[in-house]
């Protein structure tokens, strides 16, 4: 790849005319040896100083540019130091490969989302509330950390404590109106989250799902999937064995004729699959019904009052424990069911089990939301939002405890059993699918709870940190590298998509119903007395109307945000643009096919 | 600005930063890794650009490369004379391309050279056979290896010349999201 002399002159010329950043990127990307790159770089720098001298610019500009770049470099080095997990993630990638690493990267990403949410809520809602706090008369016993009730009911942890007044410390000084602050902070956080998730999903899809011609399966497997990250000898041997098995299977399929099932066998297989699906859906429905009746029972007991405090505390914990137990045990049942129906490939088994787990989790969260929004909100309790917040707090906490227990039993004890009692079981593997679904479930609960308990992201943040640490230690000590093939890029895309589509959009609809349809409680919270939480925005707009400076905000609100015609026009425009892009993609596909035919002939 | 070090001149460090994807600290750390392989051969002062080469055996014993089935090819591709013995420049070059900050096209270009065992700028059938054997630890029969190689060429060869050129290889990489 030696450049001719003329080509090199052209290259130097084009590099010299780029901006500094582009030039550096272009030099870094050149597939040449270091020596050649240094020569070219020096030539380019000489060219640049020659040009600037021609133009009469000062010589100091060149050195200023260099020292500015050096400053930028040291800044980026310090920024790198701020990411404390970098080394940990690298070690995990080296020992276990990129598939297990994708779980930890996902966890870190969720942790960042929660940190952002916590900072927003704390800064805009909690800190002003501290200035106008009422004294707390309740006593603190240790059990409150688990149940979230009692002492915590009168703290900034829950919606009910926040005032609906305008807070001002100094007479005639700047005032802080809590009502619009609360609703706008939550609203803006969700909008930002929506945009982040949308762009992430789009980026992953464009990178990982090339929906062009059929995949070149074999070439792909041979040349592209070797994980060069791995430096552990055992992991390397496992990967080689994996590839060997895959190639052997492929060859066996080629040599043998395609297995033609007889009609009776095919019907039998379809019947087995149908039966398994019916059983799993029935289990999910049964779990939901159980949760629903248990929670209604709970509410009835709560309204009636309890004989003593201890009974009340334990009764409050029954629901979260049952929900977490269902979430932990039913997936094992699904996995066993999947073993019974003989799938054609192990990949199918994994996908079907994951889909069933998703259905289970969605239905449980769905039934809980239905219970909260329809039953609790219309009950005669004093402060239903705080009740919902407490429920969510307990669910999050018990789920976190079960996650730690699951790690203990699933990995630590399993390793001990596998190495001492039952030698042929061996070390456990890290179950990526189940762990990622647990993360998505926990994040869904947190998002639902932001409106009712503004500090919940902070609690979830601490929980995620502990989970990260525990999982990492457990992984290094107890697990072996994965034996099955795991197509990392596809699965990461699916997980981010799952986080966006059922999880986040579901949360948005729940929050939407809460803000627009439900009546806030009369005696507590920042929206007390209003017909709905959204009415706070209307009131704020009315206040703004009295100031001439902000008339444009009022105009935008009346004519754009609350008018249906505007949204109709935007939807029509988006649909037209989508249709045009789709046609362009079809045209490009035809073009690619034509060019391909030209090359081969 | 920052720590004082006497190994490189500031200009050398600037040149390294411009030509690789590493920051100053990473370059110094890599230099110390290079030096740790053979402290008596590598001087601590590089400002007069000494011509020091480390033999392949030392490079191949690094923990990052020790278990990699392609370590010999990797060292040969990045070394100056194609024999596996690397200077500091080659060393930095190799790690720069293999780091996570390098773009995929650059990695694809070097991956092509690594898989090209006979250095004829094409991946022919014998190159593929050697690759398959390295990836499966010689546990497939020769007929199976041959069958796999034929299938790979059939699928990936766009211009139908019986071997994979750089363009064919890059065309395949673009559509493979798992390539690292």
Automatic annotation (TrEMBL), chain A:
Keywords: Membrane, Transmembrane, Transmembrane helix
Family per record: Belongs to the TMC family.
GO cellular component: plasma membrane
Domain of life the protein comes from: Eukaryota
Annotated transmembrane regions: 109-131, 143-161, 181-205, 274-295, 315-338, 350-373, 393-414, 458-475, 495-516, 565-582
Main subcellular location of this protein, as a coarse class: membrane
Gene field: Tmc5
A GO molecular-function annotation: mechanosensitive monoatomic ion channel activity
Membrane topology category: Multi-pass membrane protein
UniProt entry tagged with the keyword Membrane: yes
TMC domain segment(s): 383-489
InterPro entries found in the cross-reference section: TMC (IPR038900), TMC_dom (IPR012496)
KW Transmembrane helix (keyword) present: yes
UniProt subcellular location: Membrane
PANTHER family named in the record: TRANSMEMBRANE CHANNEL-LIKE PROTEIN 5, TRANSMEMBRANE CHANNEL-RELATED
UniProt-recorded name of the protein: Transmembrane channel-like protein
Annotated organism of origin: Nesospiza acunhae
TrEMBL record, chain B:
GO-annotated molecular function: calcium ion binding; magnesium ion binding
One Pfam family linked to the record: EF-hand_7
GO biological process entries: calcium ion homeostasis
Keyword Metal-binding applies: yes
Top-rank taxon: Eukaryota
EF-hand domain ranges (all copies): 103-138, 144-179
UniProtKB keywords: Calcium, Magnesium, Metal-binding, Repeat
Matching PANTHER family: CALCIUM AND INTEGRIN BINDING FAMILY MEMBER 2, CALCIUM AND INTEGRIN-BINDING FAMILY MEMBER 3
Name under which the protein is recorded: CIB3 protein
């Amino acid at each position: 790849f030696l450049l001719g002399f003329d080509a090199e002159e052209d290259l130097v010329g084009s590099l010299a005319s780029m901006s500094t950043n582009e030039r550096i990127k272009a030099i870094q990307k050149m597939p040449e040896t270091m020596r050649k790159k240094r020569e070219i770089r020096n030539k380019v720098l000489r060219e640049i100083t020659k040009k600037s001298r021609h133009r009469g610019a000062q010589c100091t500009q060149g050195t200023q540019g260099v020292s500015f770049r050096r400053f930028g470099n040291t800044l980026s080095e310090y920024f790198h130091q701020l990411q404390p997990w970098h080394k940990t993630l690298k070690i995990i990638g080296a020992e276990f490969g990129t598939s297990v690493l994708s779980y930890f990267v996902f966890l870190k990403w969720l942790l960042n989302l929660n940190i952002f949410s916590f900072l927003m809520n704390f800064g805009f809602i909690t800190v002003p509330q501290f200035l106008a706090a009422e004294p707390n008369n309740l006593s603190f016993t240790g059990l409150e950390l688990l149940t979230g009730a009692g002492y915590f009911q009168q703290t900034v942890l829950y919606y009910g404590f926040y005032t609906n007044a305008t807070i001002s410390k100094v007479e005639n000084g700047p005032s802080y109106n809590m009502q619009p602050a609360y609703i706008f902070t939550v609203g803006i956080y969700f909008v930002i989250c929506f945009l982040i998730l949308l762009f992430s999903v789009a980026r992953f899809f464009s990178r990982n799902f090339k929906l062009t011609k059929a995949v070149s399966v074999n070439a792909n497997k041979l040349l592209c999937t070797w994980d060069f990250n791995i430096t552990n000898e055992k992991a390397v041997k496992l990967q080689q064995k994996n590839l060997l098995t895959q190639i052997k299977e492929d060859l066996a399929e080629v040599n043998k004729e395609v297995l033609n099932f007889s009609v009776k066998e095919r019907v039998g297989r379809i019947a087995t699959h149908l039966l398994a699906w019916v059983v799993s859906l029935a289990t999910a429905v049964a779990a939901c019904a159980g949760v629903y009746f248990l929670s209604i029972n709970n509410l009835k007991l709560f309204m009636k009052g309890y004989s003593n405090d201890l009974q009340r505390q334990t009764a409050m914990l029954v629901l979260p424990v049952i929900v977490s137990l269902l979430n932990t045990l039913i997936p094992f049942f699904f996995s066993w069911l999947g073993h019974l129906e003989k799938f054609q490939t192990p990949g199918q088994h994994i996908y079907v089990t994951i889909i069933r787990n998703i259905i289970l989790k969605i239905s449980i969260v769905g039934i809980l939301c239905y219970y909260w929004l329809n039953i609790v909100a219309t009950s005669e309790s004093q402060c239903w939002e705080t009740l919902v917040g407490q429920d969510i707090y307990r669910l999050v906490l018990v789920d976190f405890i079960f996650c730690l227990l699951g790690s203990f039993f699933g990995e630590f004890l399993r390793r001990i059993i596998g190495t001492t009692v039952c030698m042929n079981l061996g070390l456990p593997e890290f179950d990526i699918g189940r762990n990622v679904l647990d993360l998505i479930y926990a994040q869904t609960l947190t998002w639902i709870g932001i409106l009712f308990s503004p500090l919940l992201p902070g609690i979830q943040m601490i929980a995620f940190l502990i989970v990260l640490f525990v999982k990492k230690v457990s992984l290094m000590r107890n697990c072996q590298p994965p034996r099955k093939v795991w197509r990392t890029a596809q699965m990461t895309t699916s997980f981010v998509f799952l986080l966006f589509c059922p999880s986040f959009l579901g949360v948005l609809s729940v929050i939407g119903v809460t803000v627009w349809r439900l009546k806030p409680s009369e005696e507590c919270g920042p929206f007390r007395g209003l017909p709905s939480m959204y009415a706070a925005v209307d009131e704020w707009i009315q206040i703004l109307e009295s100031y001439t400076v902000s008339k444009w905000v009022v105009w935008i609100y009346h004519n754009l945000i609350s008018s249906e015609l505007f949204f109709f026009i935007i939807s029509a425009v988006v649909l037209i643009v989508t249709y045009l892009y789709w046609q362009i993609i079809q045209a490009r596909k035809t073009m690619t096919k034509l060019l391909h035919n030209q090359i081969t002939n | 600005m920052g720590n004082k070090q006497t190994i490189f001149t500031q200009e050398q460090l600037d040149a390294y930063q411009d030509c690789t994807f590493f920051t100053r600290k990473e370059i110094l750390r890599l230099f110390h890794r290079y030096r740790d392989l053979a402290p008596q051969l590598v001087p601590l002062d590089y400002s007069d650009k000494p011509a020091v080469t480390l033999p392949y055996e030392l490079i191949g014993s690094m923990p990052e490369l020790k278990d990699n089935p392609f370590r010999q090819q990797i060292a040969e591709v990045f070394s100056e004379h194609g024999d596996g013995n690397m200077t500091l420049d080659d060393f930095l070059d190799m790690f720069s391309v293999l780091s996570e900050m390098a773009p995929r096209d650059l990695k694809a270009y070097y991956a092509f050279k690594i898989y090209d065992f006979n250095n004829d700028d094409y991946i022919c059938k014998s190159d593929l056979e050697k690759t398959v054997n390295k990836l499966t630890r010689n546990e497939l029969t020769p007929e199976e290896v041959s069958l796999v190689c034929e299938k790979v060429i059939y699928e990936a060869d766009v211009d139908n010349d019986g071997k994979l050129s750089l363009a064919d290889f890059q065309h395949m990489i673009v559509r493979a999201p798992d390539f690292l």
